Amino acid sequence: MPGFLPPAMLTSCTWELANTMNRSWFQSPIMRFYQAFWEDLPGVVHVIPNRIFSVQTTRSWDFLHVNPDIRSGILSRSHSGAGSIIGMMDTGIWPESESFRDDGMADAPTRWKGICQAGEEFNASDCSRKIIGARWYIKGYEAEFGKLNTTQGVEFLSPRDAVGHGTHTSSTAAGSLVENVSFAGLARGLARGGAPASWLAVYKICWSTGGCSSADLLAAFDDAISDGVDVLSVSLGAPPPLPSYVDDTLAIGSFHAVAKGITVVCSGGNSGPYPQTVINTAPWIITVAASTIDRAFPTAITLGNNQTFVGQAFYTSGLRDRFYPIVYGEDIASTISDEDSARSCDDGSLNATLARGKVVLCFQSRSQRSATVAISTVTAVEGIGLIFAQFPSKDVTVSSRIPCVQVDFTIGTSLLTYMEATRNPLVKITSSRTVIRKQISPEVAVFSSRGPSSLSPSVLKPDVAAPGVNILASWSPASSQLDPPLNFKMESGTSMSCPHISGIVALLKAIHPSWTPAMIKSALVTTASTKDQYSQNIVAEGAPHKQADAFDYGGGHVDANRAVNPGLVYDAEISDYVCLLCFMGYNSSAISTMTGKPTKCKESSNCLVNLNLPSIVIPNLKRGVTVSRVVTNVGPVNSIYTARVEAPVGTYVRVKPSVLSFNSSMTKLKFRVIFNSLLRVQGRYSFGNLFWEDGLHEVRIPLVIRTVIDDSYAET
User: Fold this and answer.
1) Where is the active site (predicted)?
2) Do 262 and 295 touch, CB atoms closer than 8 A?
3) Is the separation of the CB atoms in 50 and 21 below 8 Å?
4) Strands (E), 184-329
5) Bigger pLDDT: 138 vs 209
6) Do residues 521 and 463 touch, judged by C-beta distance below 8 A?
7) CA separation (Å) from 714 to 452, 528, 620?
């Protein structure tokens, strides 16, 4: 039909147009004229400006109980993910890494249509029975920034990873078993991915010189769909403000993938702990928050008076086991800086003469929160160590040049008190140790972006949390400045939590190949846990820490073994998402961009609140509203479920019917949830839960309500 293209041609056309211009052009009057002109051309549905994304930067699998020792667990039942293909959209891969050995792997399946695209220092032979496909994309990036300049740093015009990020995420999701792995002697043990028997397909769209082009991303989605992946892991995104779904290439590409039965998993962003910062919020995506695991790296700090404090660090060598002078950053400010900047060891703030050969104490500030910046500053003035006092967090910063011990403000203040009372203060830093099962976890990481979605508050985001703090996985030696170079590295970020869920999805897909992406997401959300390993409510790191809620972790912390048998699932079809887009006000032409075919909006009930998600969010409850959901029985054929409600504060909640009876001819049942506000105030969000229970399964979805008087009020 004139004016519309099938999905492959649609994304290809959009990609070619976007490849020829940058964002500033799209914002100019002349560009808006040409944009309208191009959109009137036959065969063009929509013109989208190119955007630049960024990557969102092994105890974790044992912590999740994803291990072969559980005979009825997800790893055993899925045969370690055999038969599933995970597509990784990232910075590429280092194929020689031990994590990608193909011992015992089967040949690629006959359904696989992908290729091994050669390039700089990457041949077709670098693919294997583990890495069954590899492609690289540069046209969109070079249209935005010009010819890629590799003279100022290491990069490869090929699928080879010069950054390390893609190698890390790939090995986290599906790495083979590697024994006796450590990071500088810490966290020693067996490294493995979540789905070690799954195949990997690599789509390199991000480059060491910075950023990932949305045009390249869209082209990669096109290829991955045609190639035949089962899961797509996308650890990247752009910070708020969020583009509309019809202008967001990640939302468009993932929509096409989900329409073909491919589950898309994305990182939720690293802008926490601030609300409304979560990214990748389309309802057809699984959006992942980051959490901690129960492994710590205690590092002793001994003062000259033999008083000892303990922080965390990755420190095993460098300083001899003796005392060194310690100075306070504020006291050694450079002549071009001020005391406030020097207190936090901001860039260029320290006097080199006064810092040389000493350990420097710095305090995190509102303007300088980063231990990484402080490490660089102290190293530049030839300081020999750093103690960085900060808001409490379990995220440990990697420092390859000098020891960096992270402590809280209480310990930092105690050190400062000692220094002020002592003429020649001294400190000794003892090598870090690895300790497991002694740290309360999981907790939501301080950097993990929080909901609600700033684009569609009625869609709960993030969906689920997974380990993303101090994760040890494979690394590209090309990105290391050390000798010998790093082959495994610690990293933190929602980029690390995303491939944990991708690996679990591959396992679920191997067990339940007929499940749709919505069913898989539902299984993860409804079985997730809101308790830590001591059965206490999960805490979210922040300033201060607080009890976590659905805007921190969605349904909760992933429980992979329970997700295998969720009992009931909340399924959704592409037509449901189209209905949502229509209800949000997008016109038929714009929605056709998403669907890749002619699509007209029809009048229907409120698709915003009635979209069949495994959650209910009502951001504007005035008096009362009724919401409907449909559940599908995937457990025992003859099952009876009873509803139980934990109502959000200030809300009265009823479920009709309150009992659901399933049999061989009744596998799907609809129910309604009636919400009535008990308050007439401009309120804040409150949280509750709806459970369906049959004595064996507990199917829980979050309830999130905000009472309002006027829709136009901002959240305060």
Assistant:
1) 90, 165, 495
2) no
3) yes
4) 186-191, 199-204, 212-213, 231-234, 236-237, 263-267, 286-291, 295-296, 298-303, 308-312, 324-328
5) 138
6) yes
7) 13, 31, 11
In the 8-state DSSP scheme, what is residue 477?
Answer: G
Amino acid 2 reads P
Is the distance from CB of 445 to CB of 395 less than 8 angstroms?
yes
Per residue in 18-32, pLDDT (tens digit) is: 333 333 334 444 444
Q: Looking up tokens 């690895």, which residue turns up?
A: 434
Banded model confidence at residue 55, pLDDT cuts 50, 70, 90:
low
Largest CA distance in the chain: 84
Give the ranges where 260-401 is alpha helix by DSSP (H): 339-343, 352-355, 371-380
- Structural Rg of the chain based on CA atoms: 26
Q: At what angle do helices 494-511 and 165-174 cross, to 10 degrees?
A: 30
- Report CA-CA distances (Å) from 276 to 220, 469, 583: 28, 21, 22
Nearest Cα to 376, choosing from 353, 397, 407?
397
What are 685's strand-pairing partners?
706
DSSP 8-state secondary structure symbol assigned to residue 367: S
Return the active site residues: 90, 165, 495
pLDDT over 80 at 1, yes or no: no
Q: How confident is the model at residue 250 (pLDDT cuts 50, 70, 90)?
A: very high
Please give the single-letter amino acid code of residue 264: V
Q: DSSP string covering 410-459, please?
A: HHHHHHHHHHHT-SS-EEEEPPP--EES-S---EE-TTS---S-SS-TTS
Q: In one letter, which amino acid is 119?
A: G
**Is the pLDDT score of 674 beyond 80?**
yes
Q: Are 557 and 441 in contact (CB under 8 A)?
A: no
Cα-based distances in Å from 83 to 111, 191, 566: 11, 21, 22
- Rounded Cα distance, 138 and 159, in Å: 11
**Tokens 């450079």 -> residue:** 334
- Reported as half-sphere exposure (CB side, CA atoms, 13 A), residue 442 has a value of 31
Stated pTM of the model: 0.91
Three-class DSSP category at 6: coil
Q: Evaluate whether 482 touches 158 at the Cβ level (below 8 Å).
A: no
pLDDT of residue 526: 98
Q: How does pLDDT run across 179-207, given as a tens digit for each residue?
A: 999 998 999 999 999 999 999 999 999 99
Alpha-carbon span 610 to 617, nearest angstrom: 10
